[in-house]
Amino acid sequence: PTAPDITRTVLGASGTTALTTTATDLWVDAGTTWSTTDPLTGGSGTERWDANSGTSGTASAGATVNPSYYHQFVFTLSYAVTGGGSPTAPTLTATQYGASYTPALTGAATDYWLDNSQSWSVTNPLTESGATERWRSSQTVSGTVSATQTTIFAYYHQFDFVLSYSLAGGGSPTAPTLTTTQYGASYTPVLTTIATDYWLDNSQTFSVTNPLTGSGTTERWQSSQTVSGTVSATQTTVFTFYHQFGPLISYSVVGGGSGYSAPTLACQQFGSSFTYTATTTGPAQWVDNSCAYTF
């Protein structure tokens, strides 16, 4: 930037003198005002060299004028919350004029002048967040000031789903997929047999594959649990998929007659006792693999 000038009155005449980084004696008429350039020439709407104090006064005694100009960039910042809730606004932690600077962000774009080459950060997750519920942004929320920046920090209200799956009855089907939304975008992780945390956006739908890929018309891996819904609270679930077969159960009577009852199938379905009274036409009934059955 261009060196600052000092504007003063000497012997009744106004004049301007360029300042240097070396101390120089300058005379000012008593009782008159003086000022130095602030901000320095050479800046722009997004970059400046600015002194926060010591750039003007009234001559009443000898004084030392040595304003410190800070190289600063403007950060135009705001924030938004998606998914509800009323968390505390995020705080910007940075340096301005060589001192700690911690303004709270608002929903309206606001200019914050930050000292160059100093670190900055924004609260993430927001204060009210906890182990199972949070308001978090996936954006970069910290760095070192080196250029201007305009950012709307998007915080998503999320709940923690602790999910895993297990197989009952053997087989090697494809693992189930969780289909949902995270940070406003499609999110489709594959579940494992180990309990894992998945943070899901509040008020968005979720579903888990059911039956598993590899199932067909006579063999399947199916869960009887609720595998879809809308996110509104934390959830911990082990999805149990049962290996099942679907034999066609029917009967016929040879030679006629009356006074008999239809045969009943007793077996296991989804790990629990299951009975089915057969008909002469079916239909197929899904029963757990390896279960002992009787008629």
For the secondary structure, the number of strands is: 23
Number of helices: 0
The rounded distance between the terminal residues' Cα atoms is: 95 Å
Radius of gyration: 37 Å
What keywords describe this structure?
295 residues, mainly beta, 9-stranded mixed beta sheet, 4-stranded antiparallel beta sheet, 23 strands, 44% strand
Structural account:
The protein is mostly beta strands and 295 residues long. 0% of the residues lie in helices and 44% in strands. Strands 4, 6, 9, 11, 13, 16, 18, 20 and 23 form a nine-stranded mixed β-sheet that branches. A four-stranded antiparallel β-sheet has the order 2-1-3-5, with no helix packed on it. The protein has a four-stranded antiparallel β-sheet with strand order 8-7-10-12, with no helix packed on it. The N and C termini lie far apart (95 Å).
How are the elements arranged and paired?
Layout (H helix, E strand, L loop, with lengths): L4 E6 L2 E6 L14 E4 L10 E4 L5 E3 L11 E13 L9 E5 L2 E3 L8 E6 L3 E4 L10 E4 L5 E3 L4 E20 L9 E5 L2 E3 L8 E6 L3 E4 L10 E4 L5 E3 L4 E11 L18 E6 L2 E6 L9 E2 L7
Parallel strand pairs: 6-13, 13-20
Antiparallel strand pairs: 1-2, 1-3, 3-5, 4-6, 6-9, 7-8, 7-10, 10-12, 11-13, 13-16, 14-15, 14-17, 17-19, 18-20, 20-23, 21-22
